[in-house]
């Protein structure tokens, strides 16, 4: 009977450790799925913006045919955003896209008749709306990454989280801060 108490203590400790591991694993899985979902939301918004840009370019092209470099930069930035592989690449592409949009809207400012076009105004509003959604999606994604990375790094999770296949994720940060320091001018 003397051996029963130490065995029960060991069994209780194993059960507590098992419950902790189970709960921690499930919360890591949930956070990982949330980060994946948030990244998917970002890619959906980037695709939406990329789909709107050709229409906006065509609307501006008729008024500013001599601004070929601006259109090429927007087209190149659009292609770059569609081919991103992860948050780091997306950050670089986002900086290039912001610069290209600034140039495009600067060209549009030079043509008052374009600014009065209902089609152009609708496209412009759609782009602004999409930019807001990208920003919100990026905040949601970065919040999920923060939670996941914190959960992976804290003790005692840091002792086994990587062994269970969980790794820290990258934040979605725009690499060229100057590119986004001022939002594209869309109000005329």
Overall average residue pLDDT? 82
Order of helices and strands: HHHHHH
Query: Could you give me the name of the CATH homologous superfamily?
Result: LemA-like domain
Q: Tell me the helix content.
A: over 70%
Instruction: Please work out how many helical segments DSSP would assign.
Output: 6
| Gross geometry | rod-shaped
Instruction: Give the DSSP E fraction (strand runs of 2 or more residues).
Output: under 5%
CATH topology: de novo design (two linked rop proteins)
CATH class reads: Mainly Alpha
In the residues, how many domains can be counted? 1
Specify the CATH architecture: Up-down Bundle
Q: Largest sheet, described in full?
A: none
Give the termini distance in whole angstroms: 87 Å
Rounded to an integer, what's the Rg over CA atoms?
Answer: 25 Å
Return the structural class: mainly alpha
Poorly predicted sequence stretches spanning 5 or more consecutive residues: 184-188
What are the salient characteristics of this protein?
mainly alpha, 188 residues, rod-shaped, de novo design (two linked rop proteins), 6 helices
Short note summarizing the structure:
The protein is mainly alpha-helical and 188 residues long. The chain is 74% helix and 0% strand.
What does this 3D model show about the protein?
With 188 residues, the chain is mostly helical. It has a single domain, classed as LemA-like domain (de novo design (two linked rop proteins), Up-down Bundle), CATH 1.20.1440.20. Helix content is 74%, strand content 0%. It is built from 6 helices and no strands. It has helices at 4-61, 68-82, 87-109, 112-115, 118-153, 177-180. The radius of gyration is 25 Å and the shape is rod-shaped. The model is unreliable at 184-188 (pLDDT under 50).
